[in-house]
Amino acid sequence: MANPLLELRKLGQSVWYDNLNRVLINTGALKRMVEEDGVSGGTSNPSIFEKAISGSSDYDDHLRELSGQGKELPGIYDGLTVTDVQLSADVFRPVYDSTEARDGYASLEVSPELAYDTQTSIDEARRLFRTLDRPNAMIKIPGTPEGLPAIERCLADGLNINITLLFGVENYEQVAWAYISALEKRWAARQPVDRIGSVASFFVSRVDTLTDEKLKEKIEAATDDRTREELRSLLGKAGIANAKIAYAKYKEMFSGPRWEALAAKGARVQRCLWASTSTKNPDFRDVIYVEELIGPDTVNTLPQNTLDAFREHGKAALTLDQGVAEAHEAIRRIEGAGISFKAVTDELQTQGVKLFCDSFDKAVASIVQKREVLRGEGARA
User: Which pTM was predicted?
Assistant: First the structure.
């Protein structure tokens, strides 16, 4: 039977891996995913890195080397994460070359502690992109209000940018305009626009998690069966509906005279990337956030369990354009139930920044702990 992951590529959707780490690279597993499953890019974040360094010995030699060079914690974290993304970018480089810079990217995130600091985000993104020294490296910047001008400035400078922690369609629209504006500024400055890569990372399952929490509160408080049934019918509907509305907005924005003028100069669309696509609710199909979000010029970034599940029993068919009217109706009904959807997506972005900051702190703590263990082993040797 055909591998459903490879079928996604035929439908215009790229599969990226949501767990870049040294183990995958050292064992050749990442290269095999590229060759056998059509994986064509990958992402990292503080949470991924914290789990990788605390759960394996693959970083030990490099950590010893960095410590021996007198590096302190910021430099050690930087050295380990930059190397992960450099090595991953090298694995994806054939994809980048064969697609002429459309695909094949590896992403590294600026510190989440900078999510509300525009200028420092710009400075850090420039430094990381320069340090990575790979044409297919992408820098992740959160789509916060303070992140938006940093995103536009970095794109105008020629950096590849992955805008992360997007939840609301209004926020996505701001990000897409920032991309278009940045390319216009580059062209006005006589700079090329044909090899700038960017994705807008829309988090999906988290939208369902928080919306369903609020719906369940209302179900508990409901006084009649009809209201309870109406509310229950909305469970698990928000995340996919939100993504489909965002994709409809994408198609609207990346068409028409303003975009066509850039496309004529070789500009590529900023693709929607579906993130947080593992199923959190055991009552839902384990590949629901893949099967329901398949469409051209998109990316789905999958963790290992979802990648394996879709390879085993996923169904590949164009679905993103289907049920858009129903998606709008689902959001309208959620709003009608007394849940502000904008308040939900704003809360999720704030939570997302905090979660990444917490993971960053845990990653640093893991480095400290492992460094002390390695020092102890060295003293006993």
Answer: 0.95
